[in-house]
Amino acid sequence: MASILIVDDERSMREFLEIFLRRRSYEVRVAENAVKALEGLNGTEVEPDVIVADLRMPEMDGIAFLKEAKTRIPDTEVIIITAFATTDTAIEAMRLGAYDYVTKPFKGDELVIVIEKALEKRTLRRENLALRRELTKKFSFGNLVGKSAPMQEVFDLIRKAAPTKTSILIEGESGTGKELAARAVHFNSPRAGGPFVVINCGAIPENLIESELFGYMKGAFTGAFANKVGLVETANNGSLFLDEIGELPLPVQVKLLRLLQEKTFKRVGGVDDITVDARIIAATNRDLKAEVAAGRFREDLFYRLNVIMVRLPPLRERLDDLPLLVDSILKRVVVDCGKTIGDVAADAMEILAGYAFPGNVRELENILERGVTLESGPHLTVKSLPQSVVDEVARGRAKGAEPRAVEITTDGVDLEGLLGTYERELLVAALKTAGGVRKEAARLLGITFRSMRYRLAKHGLAVEDDV
């Protein structure tokens, strides 16, 4: 039985609605003003499914009540009734999250129709929320979220590797969630009860990184007034996450290699070997093979670290995950910001789906946090997205619609060169539209997947598993 709360300072209206709605099998509660209604919401009463509130009331009007009610019970639909409806009040009420408004005088059956539609919306939202929770549970691993094939491969690899002692190398662009993947490895391993120690190799000055990692002995250098335990020792019986491992200086790489091979190391200025049992998980946004070829990274260390390679795909290659990511991030951000925003409006989601996200999931988090902070309504709208994002998506759409103009002069043209350039641009555009999924890009271009791979390789667009 659906629960309706009537809030109206006019006694005759309260009594009429209470009798009328109870006859139609609704559970009805009444409050003579907004203040008493809010007191009831603070008590032990069951949250109503729908609130029908008058606009003009003493102490607190319907608009102020609507604001407070949507803050406390955001899932409850609110219908405003008034004899003083104007366009401005209607727009304000809808902006603040009212389901609808009804103008007095009205017939009881008219109000029932609006209530039924509000209940349908509430039921549908609950079903969608339950479905999203199930999807998030099904398509998540630790704090990583994704239903796309690339992310499912990542989850499968982590599940297999986590219980072992094997070193793991995580590759991915900045903002793809490399630390989250490392935490998923640690907390799904037998070492979950031990420490998880993080060090960003690119954030510590080169002359300090060795002492930070391995510690030092008193008198080892100026300012070393006492022995210090390094992060490697701190991670004993746990996991040591070395983020941006490609930034590690070559001399320190030698000591790390010894740690991986022999499980021992010496503190700076020390002579005694210290044994430690710490699993090494490394991450990089660089191509370590290229770094090895350039002489900036030791080849033997690379192979020691690269026992299990986990590649985190950029967000543009897994845009199928965008709704799940938005839902997961939004739930966290609204709590942090103290807001009651329930979802992202359809047009705003369309903008996000058309954006390339060079900063990956981290950039998406920043965009949503900004939007939630600025948004005053119940949905995150386009106006709360960064203008730079909106403009970039608009430029991309406009560019895709522009015809190509080619001028042939008396000197002639390089037909093969022009065709090659145009082909490459089409490939890039198709990949962008397809979110990096090559099979989908091939379908968009009307060619086979084999032909797609050949053309990508020809134009230097192939990734490692293309060739």
Features:
467 residues; alpha/beta; Rossmann fold; Helicase, Ruva Protein, domain 3; 4 domains; five-stranded parallel β-sheet; 19 helices; extended
What does this protein look like?
The chain has 467 residues and is an alpha/beta fold. Helices cover 48% and strands 13% of the residues. The protein has 4 domains: 3-135, Response regulator (Rossmann fold), CATH 3.40.50; 143-313, Rossmann fold, CATH 3.40.50.300; 316-401, Helicase, Ruva Protein, domain 3 (Orthogonal Bundle), CATH 1.10.8; 415-466, Orthogonal Bundle (Arc Repressor Mutant, subunit A), CATH 1.10.10.60. It contains 19 helices and 16 strands.
Secondary-structure-derived class: alpha/beta
Query: Can you summarize the main beta sheet?
Result: 5 strands, parallel
CATH class of the largest domain: Alpha Beta
Unreliable segments of 5+ consecutive residues: 401-406
Q: What distance lies between the first and last C-alpha atoms, to the nearest angstrom?
A: 62 Å
The helical percent reads 40-55%
Rg (C-alpha, Å): 30 Å
Shape: extended
Q: What's the number of extended β-strand segments?
A: 16
| CATH structural architecture of the largest domain | 3-Layer(aba) Sandwich
- In spatial order, strands of the major sheet run 2-1-3-4-5
- Give average pLDDT, whole number: 86
Total of DSSP H or I helical runs spanning 4+ residues: 19
Number of domains: 4
Under CATH, the topology of the largest domain can be stated as Rossmann fold
Query: What percent of residues are in strands?
Result: 5-15%
